[in-house]
Structure formats: structure tokens, C-alpha cells
């Protein structure tokens, strides 16, 4: 049994805060604090450049990748870390296009995808020329998969609504049509059980600062199915994806497997923090995590709707009501979403807002209790009931929402 009281003790959680934004930036794992001090002093400080060998810095991107692999249903040596998610989207999409039948012109995505994924696809397709990004509504994706599609580029869990795609079914459908799949796991990794290998996914990418608690800007990850790893084109052919970086050859030869998806010098301090953050997952059963997450999201919806019926409060559930059709977040629409969230944050309940009108709350069993969820519903109902959000100090929009 996963001991969620024990995992909670692994995090620094500020007094007086109920944190419902671990889907955007996970809290600080205490082990990360210890590790970073050690890496700075003992490795960088004392070993200096010898640390690349003596502390095995060079293997860190793949070692951390292996720890993430377990959480997303991928076999060892199929995941590597580095760069940002936007860059990994570029790499995965470029490699997928190179593997797709050459006469296919369409990259298929949906309007619930995160803008950066769509912007990156726009940029790549502009550079390549002759291809088109087709964006349909999330519920129309399955029907839009046909023989014109080269690559499906989908984010499994919608960042606004939490709606969950059926990865196995859509992957099977894409394969039946001869297309290659790219899955973005930004809101899946550490949030729900993911079975990349079982679903037969081709490429997957994700970030580590959300549910994996790797810290602001922590390195992203990329998965390449073992059947493609030896043939996939890295496209961003940097020296650390070379088969022998320290041969300093003129010609690029990709590393034999997943390491070809590395680009440049790995961010060792950030990777070390991420490595320490992943300790929190060691005893966690993803099935039990999912059950606990569903309990928390169901409690939140029930408690909010009980205290604050839609007609009275103007709150409308924006997430699927079926817990199996959503990830680990719950979103409500409200006409005054932004000031409502500012008033909530002032009362210690931290969530966030996604334009134009979404109040977004993330649920993370590793460090969040049922009692806190009930309390946050009470505070939300009170903010709306008393119109506390109308106070002038909550009207000013900050740069980051
Ligand atoms: C959070 C998120 C990103 C962010 O990309 P970065 O390069 O890490 O800033 C991209 N795509 C999706 C689907 C996300 O949820």
C-alpha cells in the first residue's frame, strides 16, 4: 500500500497554504534541498570538471529518464531527459514526420492542446514546407484520423479542462491508418497511470516541473518506442546525441538508441534536483495514486457543488463529470475567474486561472489530504457567496496567471 502520509512528509509545504497548483509547479521536495547543496559543494565545488566522470554526470540524463520510464509504462533505456518540453515536442514531431509515409501531408492535433505544442508545430511545418497542421475539436480527433494523416500530435490530458484522451484507442486507430503518434504527457506523468509500451505509442514527451515536482524549469523528457529508437532521426543533431561525442568527428553519427535524442550539455544541477524529487515516487503504486486522485477530485466537485450550486454561484464544471474521463485536475468556469482566484490565493488556497474563464485546481495525493480539499471548497464558496472577489486589489492582472 502506498503510504500517502509518508510521501507528504517528503515535501516543504508552507504553513497556512492549501496547494492546488501542483499541476503547474510541484512543491519543493526536501530531498532536493539536500541534494543540491551536495552537488554544488562536493561535485561542482570539489571535483570540478572531474565530476563528469567521477560523479557520472554524463549518464544522468538517461539515469533520470529510466526513473521516469517506470512512471509512464516505458521500458528501461527508452526515455532520456533534457531541454524544455517545447524543444522535445519539436524533436518528437520532426522525428515522427521523418518516419511517416512521405506522401502524407497532415499533422493532426486538437484545439485543447497547449498553445506551445501548436506553435512549435506551426514553426516546424513552416520550415519543412508542404505540410499542414489540422486542428479539430478534441471529441472529433478519432474521426479525423484517416489516410491523409502523417502524425497525430495530442496531449493526453487537456490543460484547461482536464479531459483525458484514450491513448490506447487513438494510437490503435492512428496505426491502422498508417500514422505515427506523438503523445504529450505534460499533465499525465505523475498524475495518472500511463502505459506507453502497452498502448504501443511511438513518441512521447513531457515536462517534470508539474506533477513530478522537479522545480521551475526542470528538464523535460522524451520517449521513443524501442522499435524506432535505432532509426529515428534526432533532427536537433547536437554533439551529445552523437554516437561518440568525444571522438569529435566532423560527421554526425547518432547514438544507437534513445541517447540520440540528447542535444547539448545537460543541466546537471537541475537534473540532480529532479533526480532527488523522483525519490518521492519510489514506493508509489500508480493504480493507488489514481484511486486517491479520483477520491480527491470527486470530493472537491461534490463539496463545491453542494455549497455553491451553479445557478446561485455562476460556477459551472468545465471538467468531465466522469472521473475516468479526466486527469487529476478539476476546472470550473466563472465569469470572474481571475479575481475569484486572487481572492482564493489571499485566503491560502492556491490554484490558477486559464484564459478566458477557467478556475483550475490540481489534485496531488502525494501531499494533499481530503480534509484540505473540503476546506478549499468551503473557502471557494465563501469567496463567491460574500463577493469577496470584487475587492479592488483582486482586479489587477499579473503577468503569470
Ligand atoms: C506545461 C506545458 C508545456 C510547457 O512547455 P515548456 O517548454 O516546458 O515551457 C507544453 N505543452 C504542454 C501540453 C504543457 O502542458
From TrEMBL:
<keyword id="KW-0663">Pyridoxal phosphate</keyword>
<feature type="modified residue" description="N6-(pyridoxal phosphate)lysine">
    <location>
        <position position="210"/>
    </location>
</feature>
<comment type="pathway">
    <text>Cofactor biosynthesis; NAD(+) biosynthesis; quinolinate from L-kynurenine: step 2/3.</text>
</comment>
<feature type="binding site">
    <location>
        <position position="85"/>
    </location>
    <ligand>
        <name>pyridoxal 5'-phosphate</name>
    </ligand>
</feature>
<dbReference type="GO" id="GO:0043420">
    <property type="term" value="P:anthranilate metabolic process"/>
</dbReference>
<keyword id="KW-0378">Hydrolase</keyword>
<comment type="function">
    <text>Catalyzes the cleavage of L-kynurenine (L-Kyn) and L-3-hydroxykynurenine (L-3OHKyn) into anthranilic acid (AA) and 3-hydroxyanthranilic acid (3-OHAA), respectively.</text>
</comment>
<feature type="binding site">
    <location>
        <position position="239"/>
    </location>
    <ligand>
        <name>pyridoxal 5'-phosphate</name>
    </ligand>
</feature>
<dbReference type="GO" id="GO:0009435">
    <property type="term" value="P:NAD+ biosynthetic process"/>
</dbReference>
<dbReference type="GO" id="GO:0005737">
    <property type="term" value="C:cytoplasm"/>
</dbReference>
<dbReference type="InterPro" id="IPR015422">
    <property type="entry name" value="PyrdxlP-dep_Trfase_small"/>
</dbReference>
<comment type="pathway">
    <text>Amino-acid degradation; L-kynurenine degradation; L-alanine and anthranilate from L-kynurenine: step 1/1.</text>
</comment>
<protein>
    <recommendedName>
        <fullName>Kynureninase</fullName>
        <ecNumber>3.7.1.3</ecNumber>
    </recommendedName>
</protein>
<comment type="subunit">
    <text>Homodimer.</text>
</comment>
<feature type="binding site">
    <location>
        <position position="209"/>
    </location>
    <ligand>
        <name>pyridoxal 5'-phosphate</name>
    </ligand>
</feature>
<feature type="binding site">
    <location>
        <position position="155"/>
    </location>
    <ligand>
        <name>pyridoxal 5'-phosphate</name>
    </ligand>
</feature>
<keyword id="KW-0662">Pyridine nucleotide biosynthesis</keyword>
<feature type="binding site">
    <location>
        <position position="86"/>
    </location>
    <ligand>
        <name>pyridoxal 5'-phosphate</name>
    </ligand>
</feature>
<feature type="binding site">
    <location>
        <position position="184"/>
    </location>
    <ligand>
        <name>pyridoxal 5'-phosphate</name>
    </ligand>
</feature>
<feature type="binding site">
    <location>
        <position position="265"/>
    </location>
    <ligand>
        <name>pyridoxal 5'-phosphate</name>
    </ligand>
</feature>
<dbReference type="GO" id="GO:0019805">
    <property type="term" value="P:quinolinate biosynthetic process"/>
</dbReference>
<dbReference type="GO" id="GO:0030170">
    <property type="term" value="F:pyridoxal phosphate binding"/>
</dbReference>
<comment type="similarity">
    <text>Belongs to the kynureninase family.</text>
</comment>
<dbReference type="InterPro" id="IPR015421">
    <property type="entry name" value="PyrdxlP-dep_Trfase_major"/>
</dbReference>
<dbReference type="GO" id="GO:0030429">
    <property type="term" value="F:kynureninase activity"/>
</dbReference>
<dbReference type="Pfam" id="PF22580">
    <property type="entry name" value="KYNU_C"/>
</dbReference>
<feature type="binding site">
    <location>
        <position position="187"/>
    </location>
    <ligand>
        <name>pyridoxal 5'-phosphate</name>
    </ligand>
</feature>
<dbReference type="GO" id="GO:0019441">
    <property type="term" value="P:L-tryptophan catabolic process to kynurenine"/>
</dbReference>
<feature type="binding site">
    <location>
        <begin position="114"/>
        <end position="117"/>
    </location>
    <ligand>
        <name>pyridoxal 5'-phosphate</name>
    </ligand>
</feature>
<dbReference type="InterPro" id="IPR010111">
    <property type="entry name" value="Kynureninase"/>
</dbReference>
<dbReference type="InterPro" id="IPR015424">
    <property type="entry name" value="PyrdxlP-dep_Trfase"/>
</dbReference>
<dbReference type="GO" id="GO:0097053">
    <property type="term" value="P:L-kynurenine catabolic process"/>
</dbReference>
Amino acid at each position: 500500500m502506498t503510504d500517502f502520509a509518508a510521501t507528504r512528509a517528503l515535501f516543504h509545504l508552507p504553513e497556512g497554504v492549501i496547494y492546488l497548483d501542483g499541476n503547474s509547479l510541484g512543491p519543493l521536495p526536501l530531498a532536493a534541498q539536500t541534494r543540491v547543496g551536495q552537488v554544488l559543494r562536493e561535485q561542482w565545488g570539489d571535483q570540478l570538471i572531474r565530476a563528469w566522470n567521477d560523479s557520472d554526470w554524463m549518464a544522468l540524463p538517461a539515469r533520470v529518464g529510466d526513473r521516469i520510464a517506470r512512471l509512464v509504462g516505458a521500458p528501461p533505456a527508452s526515455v532520456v531527459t533534457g531541454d524544455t518540453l517545447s524543444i522535445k515536442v519539436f524533436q518528437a514531431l520532426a522525428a515522427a514526420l521523418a518516419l511517416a509515409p512521405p506522401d502524407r501531408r497532415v499533422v493532426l492535433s486538437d484545439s485543447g492542446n497547449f498553445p506551445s505544442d501548436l506553435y512549435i508545430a506551426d514553426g516546424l511545418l513552416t520550415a519543412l514546407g508542404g505540410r499542414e497542421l489540422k486542428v479539430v475539436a478534441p471529441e472529433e480527433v478519432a474521426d479525423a484520423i484517416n489516410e491523409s494523416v502523417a502524425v497525430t500530435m495530442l496531449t493526453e490530458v487537456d490543460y484547461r479542462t482536464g479531459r483525458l484522451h484514450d491513448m490506447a484507442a487513438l494510437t490503435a486507430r492512428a496505426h491502422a491508418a498508417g500514422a505515427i503518434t506523438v503523445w504529450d504527457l505534460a499533465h499525465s506523468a505523475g498524475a495518472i497511470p500511463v502505459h506507453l509500451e502497452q498502448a504501443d505509442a511511438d513518441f512521447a514527451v513531457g515536462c517534470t516541473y508539474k506533477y513530478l515536482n522537479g522545480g521551475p524549469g526542470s528538464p523535460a523528457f522524451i520517449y521513443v518506442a524501442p522499435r524506432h529508437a535505432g532509426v529515428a532521426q534526432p533532427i536537433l543533431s547536437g554533439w551529445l546525441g552523437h554516437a561518440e561525442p568525444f571522438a569529435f568527428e566532423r560527421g554526425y553519427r547518432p547514438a544507437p538508441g534513445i541517447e540520440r535524442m540528447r542535444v547539448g550539455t545537460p543541466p546537471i544541477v537541475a537534473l540532480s534536483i529532479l533526480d532527488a524529487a523522483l525519490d518521492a515516487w519510489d514506493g508509489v503504486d500508480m493504480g493507488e495514486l489514481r484511486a486517491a486522485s479520483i477520491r480527491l477530485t470527486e470530493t472537491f466537485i461534490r463539496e463545491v457543488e453542494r455549497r455553491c450550486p451553479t445557478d446561485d454561484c455562476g460556477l459551472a464544471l468545465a471538467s468531465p463529470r466522469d472521473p475516468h474521463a479526466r486527469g487529476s485536475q478539476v476546472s470550473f468556469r466563472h465569469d470572474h475567474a481571475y479575481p475569484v482566484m486572487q481572492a482564493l490565493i489571499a485566503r491560502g488556497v492556491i490554484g490558477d486561472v486559464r484564459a478566458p474563464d477557467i478556475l483550475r485546481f490540481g489534485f496531488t495525493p502525494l501531499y494533499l489530504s481530503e480534509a484540505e480539499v473540503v476546506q478549499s471548497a468551503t473557502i471557494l464558496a465563501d469567496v463567491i457567496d460574500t463577493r469577496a472577489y470584487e475587492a479592488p486589489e483582486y482586479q489587477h492582472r499579473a503577468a503569470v496567471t
